[in-house]
């Protein structure tokens, strides 16, 4: 058991709070609360959830969470901060070809082979029919005059002219698979991270609510039209807000570490306790297609404390 877990457990017992009651207060599953008390942080769903869960635990048992994080920062696993240099956040590539696609390709190949076989049989019977007709049209030999008898060389020439030509089926074309989506961190200045999403035609954003958090979403950038604004209370923990948009987005979070953002399947990691901004620029997959909307990053807004 870690010193941090001992401190939190002692505070809980001093207030005579059971694990079941603490689960109702924090909306954190009981097994995760036990993992925090025993120092088994690997049992939590992800490292960037650890601090959020510990802070929520500390608040519920009346312990100063900031003081706890400072005193026991060696016990808490750290989350790598975003690099200021350009880096690619790549998903692990899934299987290139699904079973359903393989079945379709195999069916298409069999159909092509069947059609080719039909054409080959038709050609064979046409050539054989012409050969039989030529034999019927030949005059019967009434005598064995050498001038009327075909020589061996002439027979070979006739046989060569009627040789079948085999038609080989053309191989089925292999469709070109689209590239996987890429989410790239371009800059991290002040309280704003700027990302570029490529190889897709639209943004697919999911925001998972981990604790009390405020969220605002605008089109294109900070000066764009507001799409959504909401304060998610603790009764919304575990819910996922989803949005699809054919253009760039600007997302602002208050208590940013109380939410987990996923863009086109890529997790955008953050470990920020106050207001944080995310400029997500869409670079469409068709290289010849120009952006429908000109993206202007503008001046990042100053940090403001979100309503607690």
Compile the SSE list and pairings.
Blueprint: H1 3-14, H2 19-26, H3 30-38, H4 47-60, H5 65-71, E1 87-89, H6 99-137, H7 152-161, E2 182-189, E3 192-200, E4 203-209, E5 213-219, E6 226-232, E7 240-245, E8 249-254, E9 259-263, E10 266-268, E11 276-284
* Order of strands, widest sheet: 1-2-3-11-8-5-6
Please state the average pLDDT score: 77
Tally of alpha and pi helices: 7
Text of the CATH class of the largest domain: Mainly Beta
For the record, the CATH architecture of the largest domain stands as Sandwich
Percentage of residues in strands: 15-25%
CATH topology of the largest domain: Immunoglobulin-like
Describe the model.
This protein has 308 residues and is an alpha+beta fold. The protein has 3 domains: 3-71, 434 Repressor (Amino-terminal Domain), CATH 1.10.260; 87-95 and 179-284, Immunoglobulin-like (Sandwich); 98-135 and 150-176. 32% of the residues lie in helices and 23% in strands. It is built from 7 helices and 11 strands. The chain has helices at 3-14, 19-26, 30-38, 47-60, 65-71, 99-137, 152-161; strands at 87-89, 182-189, 192-200, 203-209, 213-219, 226-232, 240-245, 249-254, 259-263, 266-268, 276-284. The chain has a 7-stranded mixed beta sheet, with no helix packed on it. It has a 4-stranded antiparallel beta sheet with strand order 7-4-9-10, with no helix packed on it. Strand 5 (213-219) and strand 6 form a beta hairpin. Helix 4 (47-60) packs across helix 5 (65-71). It is elongated and about 115 Å long.
